[in-house]
Amino acid sequence: MRKADIETFFQRLSEQHPDPRGELNYVNPYTLLVAVVLSAQATDVGVNKATGPLFEVVQTPQGMLDLGEEKLRHYIRTIGLFNSKAKNVIKLSRMLLDEHGGEVPESREALEALPGVGRKTANVVVNIAFGEPTIAVDTHVFRVSNRTGLAPGKTPLAVETKLDKAVPASFKQHAHHWLILHGRYVCKARKPDCPSCVVSELCRFKGKTTVA
């Protein structure tokens, strides 16, 4: 996609959603981190149903350790892979206390050293919690980037690298939020809603739908 088209692409998405936000509920950087870890291979809606009650009683690493792994599993039992996720949340909470004074680190590298935290999770946290212009590539961002020709790549890292170079600086802070929303509600996996798409004529997808 040409540079001018990319500028137009994000300008239109920004006009459609002037103040885009992640759809995971959280209270502070720690609960955001926990929510994103729990969201792997799960829906935001499903995670929010579980973390609503959880975050009423736990909002700090120490609070999570006081709760304990068994009770944590009970709160998140409706989320996929809840056993392994519970172990990781307890371990990362201990590491935050032991190595970071109970605070969520602001660097991606430090976050990725925590159990259950990969590059995408770290990018989400530093973007939302600390305002860094990182781009987190989830399934929606990966699909939209490849399907539209915005930033095609065979791996999430390849797509992230291309997006990092291609997205204009003025749009980078919210770029992945716009792409997630677009992928979740318009450029859907099975049947994209091309007729209602604000960037349809910029998109290089050959199989565009004609009926929503």
CATH class descriptor name of the largest domain = Mainly Alpha
Q: What fraction of the residues are assigned to beta strands by DSSP?
A: under 5%
At CATH level 2, the architecture of the largest domain is: Orthogonal Bundle
The number of distinct structural domains comes to 2
Oligomer: single chain
Please estimate the helix content. 55-70%
Note the run of SSEs as H and E.
HHHHHHHHHHHH
**How widely separated are the two ends?**
25 Å
Tally of individual helices: 12
Poorly predicted ranges (pLDDT <50, ≥5 residues)? none
Q: Largest sheet, if any?
A: none
For the CA atoms, what is the radius of gyration? Answer: 18 Å
The average pLDDT is 94
**Based on DSSP secondary structure assignment, what is the total number of beta strands?**
0
